[in-house]
Amino acid sequence: QVQLVESGGGLVQPGGSLRLSCVASGSIFSIYAMNWYRQAPGKQRELVATMTRGVTGNGGGKTNYADSVKGRFIISRDNAKNTVYLQMNSLKPEDTAVYYCNAGNIYWGQGTQVTVSS
What is the mean pLDDT of residues 13-35? Predict the structure, then answer.
């Protein structure tokens, strides 16, 4: 059974930071690019950040970000721990959404709520 389990969401004030984590089944983590999506109320799910699996070493490969989060969010992965992270800095109220971990645009986590509000 393939599983992606997210954690780290919560309530944070504007300008604050959160780090999301996603632990994946070992069988998929070494194969697929890992992605973070988000879905705000009444809006379509959007791709926030992507990291390819990389070729060597413990880290990942290439990254790509939505324009709305460039310079504020950082995606990283630890292949030894089967974990992908999303470091979110300088958070804005418009970042409020349910954030989903995704593997290869095939497998999905259950989502974790991020609320940015004063």
Answer: 88
